[in-house]
């Protein structure tokens, strides 16, 4: 579903992704862990086409992301191609990023109406469906500022789902929350992860949660995957010294 081949990303002189090879299979739930600055968010932002790449090739759902194929040649992707590719993915950010001047309902229906061309009725129906999934059916007419952080993040998840993406990307979805609100957001993500069709890529520091929901854990350091494997193996008996050092900080 996602394939990075020798992807290089630089910001100025700084190499942030260092010839990264990385794959996620269809339906797989993969967690990325690693120190601050190791390139975790950059991976997700590149997938969402919020950042470009310097070298390498990425495929999403079997199609090149930052390129398109014309006459057997890979050429830089057109804006139209990028728009199509973005529909494969939904992303949830650390800072919920809801539209502050729109109700919860409008936050969720905006993209389905304007990007997918759904009728208002259809989009409202969809909003109700996903608000129910995240347990917020009764909050549709509120504004984001009237909700707790945990509720706002659940709206952000419903908003991403309303585009019916095949892939969900989560970038530290609970890092900005007060501790007592973390559980309600993790519960929603857990429920989603049990819906087998979604492919999930999650960046988190919630190690216990990562252990519960991941098929595979990847430890990133300095723009590379240092170690990856089933969560039991990576968390209980990490092979690499850098992984061991990093995980010590979470016990
Ligand atoms: P992580 O999510 O693992 O903490 P990031 O992917 O956000 O790491 O960042 C990786 C590195 O890239 C960091 O050194 C960060 O400072 C740098 N970086 C990220 N975004 C930018 C940007 N827009 N301009 C310059 N440097 C950036
Ligand atoms: Mg980050």
Automatic annotation (TrEMBL):
It is a peripheral membrane protein. This is Ectoine/hydroxyectoine ABC transporter ATP-binding protein EhuA. Keywords: Amino-acid transport, ATP-binding, Cell membrane, Membrane, Nucleotide-binding, Transport. Belongs to the ABC transporter superfamily. The gene is ehuA. PROSITE patterns: ABC_TRANSPORTER_1, ABC_TRANSPORTER_2. One of its GO terms (molecular function) is ATP binding. Residues 2-247 form the ABC transporter domain. CDD domains: ABC_HisP_GlnQ.
